[in-house]
Amino acid sequence: MTMQTQQGLAADGADTPLRVFAISDFPLLLAALATLLAAQTPRLALAGIAAATPSPLAALAAADSDVVLLDLDGDAEPTLALIRALAARGGKVLLLTRQQERALQDRAIMLGARGLLTRDSDTAQLLTAIEKVHHGQLWLDRDATGRIFGALSRQGGMPLPDAASVVPPPLSEQEKKIVAILMANSGEPAKLIAGKLHISESTLRNHLTVIYKKFGVSNRHGLLGYVLQHGLLLPA
After folding, report:
1. DSSP readout, 222-235?
2. Ranges in the chain, pLDDT < 50
3. Is the dihedral of CA 46, 52, 55, 57 positive or negative?
């Protein structure tokens, strides 16, 4: 995943820093996050902190935060219920975890979380991910996008935030097939994708150039993010 250079939000033309609310049931982690976020002025500001249990929704409503940084390693079901509630309110949730429970992580993303970081991420990655999520992008690796798209396809679709307001670009049947296979095999190189489609690699590249232009993206990762972010499904 490509990291952008660090720059304060004030450089975007606004003097108000991006407000982040941190949630965790682990007091030491919560204190560390509060200290880190509070030190990022003017780039970020600490909107508040709260434990995941009991429900922090009242505190969140009063805080008027831009992004919620949520620890995924607490009690699973209340945490997933919280993600669902935040997504329903239009909240932008970035998850933090030290575990490798992929099923739980995928469920959290499918319920509306916008990204996930492991606890071994450095400060630069954390700050960049917060900003990316705030600007409406997903922060996921390719393995996660492939797994989640596969799960969505098997379930017949699950709308993600903003899905209702998005009209997918018109694609030919061949382009739909290319996008579907690309989503289901997101980690594979172009040569193998072309083989699954029974076309040459150069033909695939030509199709992708047209598809990227239609979606307004510049590469495969941008396409993955667009499709997952808006809950778009194309039959293989």
Report:
1. HHHHHHHHTT----
2. 1-13, 156-165, 234-236
3. positive
Q: How far is CA 59 from CA 53, 85, 153, 169, in A?
A: 12, 14, 36, 40
Q: What is the DSSP letter of 72?
A: S
Residue 154, amino acid: R
Query: Tokens 């969505």 identify what position?
Result: 152
What does the DSSP 8-state code read for residue 166? -
The single-letter code of the amino acid at 36 is L
For residue 102, what are the CA distances in angstroms to 21, 90, 140, 144, 157? 24, 24, 12, 8, 19
CA atoms of 165 and 69, how far apart (whole Å): 25
* 18 phi and psi angles, rounded to 5 deg: -70, 130
Three-state DSSP class for residue 70: strand
Give dist(CA 178, CA 233) in Å, integer.
12
110-136: pLDDT as tens digits: 788 888 998 888 999 999 999 988 887
